[in-house]
Amino acid sequence: MAFSSMSFAECNYPKKKFDVPSGKKASEAEMVETMGKVKQFQANLAVYRTCLDDELAKISPELESYEEIERMNAQKYNASVEDEQSLAEEWGEAVRAFKSN
Question: Where are the domains of the chain?
Fold first, then answer.
């Protein structure tokens, strides 16, 4: 198992360093700034998932622990997709609230 943690050491999950503002209270400038941060975070998640794919591709399926490594990789990949979907929903709600003002 030490090999599995080593193999994905280069793939660092990006940190979301912002909060989505309330669309009802945010200024247009805040919304535009946040939109840029949302897009950058989505791009960072895509890079993370590519890293996971690349790291898994370096591991031989013949390795005894390959299935476990593959399962862990899938969990990390899927968690990043779920986080991105959650952020997209939160951002969509903020945009709708902003436009309704």
Answer: 28-99
From 68, 59, 81, select the one nearest 10 (Cα to Cα): 59
Confidence of residue 4 (pLDDT cuts 50, 70, 90): very low
Q: How many whole angstroms separate alpha carbon 78 and alpha carbon 95?
A: 26
- Of 58, 61, 101, 53, nearest in space to 77 by CA: 53
Query: Rounded to an integer, what distance in angstroms lies between the CA atom of residue 72 and that of residue 90?
Result: 27
CB-CB contact of 55 with 5 (8 Å): no
What DSSP assignment string belongs to 49-67? HHHHHHHHHTS-TTSTTHH
pTM summary value: 0.85
